[in-house]
Design goal:
The chain is of the alpha/beta class. The protein contains eight helices and 16 strands. The strands form three sheets. An eight-stranded mixed beta sheet has the order 5-6-4-11-12-13-10-14, sandwiched between helices. Helix 1 runs parallel beside helix 5 and helix 1 packs across helix 7. The longest helix is centred in the first third of the chain and has 23 residues.
Amino acid sequence: MSKNKIAIIGAGMAGASLAYLLKREGMTVTLYEAAPHPASGASGNALGLYNPRICAHAGIDSTFYTAAFHEALEIFPQLQKNHDVAFNPCGILHLIHDDKKEKRYNKAVTNWAWPNDTMRIVTATEASTIAGIDIQYEALHLPQAGSISPQKLCAAYLDNIDVHYNTEITDLNIIDADIIVLANATNAAKFAKDIPIKAVRGQTTQIKSTPQSKALKCALSYSGYIAPASNGTHEIGSTFQRKFDAITPTNKDDKENLQNLKTHLPSLLPQNAEFEISNHRASLRATVQDYLPAIGHYGDNIYITTAHGSHGILSTLAAASILRDQILNRSPSIPENILKALSPHRFF
């Protein structure tokens, strides 16, 4: 069967990153997007952290996210040269503010076995020096991680790609293509009904920088996250709500994001003042019960990439690499047992 004409449903990071990699291989790629613009869902945030999902043990997560991280470190600087994707490899400090994180991060350093200059535990004093502000906790430091704009990243991926906006696909049979890829987040369940995709709502909040917060030199992850100031604002987030699917931002969620920030980083709070909110955004992320994405051949001429959850900046790019190799019949760069664990067939 010919595999030269590829149709991708969804112009978020999952679909756009795959289109980008396939286009580089000389494939004919067409995207169909129901919204009038790319990155209309969770991929539309102004800023996010590219950061592996840290687990204690070496296994599926560590192998997948290590591959994803290395892929990003190759691709993102290339995109930044020709596009403004707000790529900022400023490093990330994961604050160790409870016993669970202390155990998980220390085990991760041992079991992931990354070089010491790419992942290590630092003292509160070292963390303060790295961050440029007062940090009260030890932290897991990933100096190569950082922030990027998912919204701008999608636009860069889709440069010179044929995209049909305002086009909702309700019947796959009407698509003229050799291969169809479902990359439309929770809406993939309309065609892949046996994959239990669920929506998780997340709201981010933008706050104006303060004299204290302007000193922040790296991104910080706690029970939420904050990125260094960009154009006078910080992106903070994010809420995590399984049973609430309204995408209208709420004041309650802004307060939750702000309280989370104040609790873990009181040194950023301006004296006798409050942070000033400049914007906010809510969206729905696709996930499944085991928190691993669903990636691979689904059936007939259909492939799928969905359920990327809270780490989609990295996982969508790794998924695109996996699907590119499968579509082109290349030897996989990720071990077969990992591909099996990510396969949509695990739900059958």
